[in-house]
Amino acid sequence: MGEVANIDAEPREEFGKNAARRLRSGGRIPAVVYGAGGPPISVAVDPKQISRILLSESGHNALFTLEIKGKAPARVMLKDWTVDPLKGNLLHVDMVRIARDALLKVRVPIHTVGEPRGVKVQGGIFDFVLREVELECLPDDIPENITVDVSELTLGHNLRVSDLPIGPKVKVLSDPARMVAHVVALKVGEEKPAEVIAEAAPAEPEVIRKGKGDTEEGEEPAGAGKAEKKEGKKEGKKEGKKEGKKE
Fold first, then answer.
1. Is 123 left (phi over 0), alpha (psi -120 to 50) or beta?
2. What are the pLDDT digits (tens) for 212-224?
3. Where would I find the beta strands (DSSP E) of the chain?
């Protein structure tokens, strides 16, 4: 992997939240450089240049030269960064110095090419499980990605870390037996149970009760039947009392 860019930086002398706000309003963000036996240095960098590195093919594994005003250039790599959760803007960057003879542990993306036979011929679904692999190597040997052809992958078979085409200068740290991708059968949709269908059916319309004065011609007002029943009960009680007295 070659260096992707040169980044200009200026030493920072002011610190704190207010100083960081002023720096960002001026089109720069705070950053720190450390590692390789050297002292940490606080600098200010252009967030647009850092974003271009993150969006490059090498991404966060990219090596670049940091040109610090008044100091010797440093070969560095992005170590960490902070992003505004609402606006998505870069807020702060950490960079680490890289020595050419020092082994690095990095995560490299896995890319697949081709259409699996299990999908094209057998009607399965391609399931991409592991999208990056952890490696250890010298800075100049970091691959931009690991590309693997999945054209011969059939239904029920899988691709594991041990199957990835990785060069001899790179050591794989991820579990060799870990699954990268496989082709699975398409599941047939099950019929919904009767209870679910019943719940999904539209409810019967509610009967709208009419208020007083809303009765139509020829229709008895609500409660008329109840009034008649009460009158009938009263008459029955009166009649019973009268009969008892007579006897």
1. left
2. 444 444 344 444 4
3. 3-11, 29-35, 38-45, 63-68, 74-83, 90-97, 104-113, 125-128, 132-137, 146-149, 158-160, 171-172, 179-184
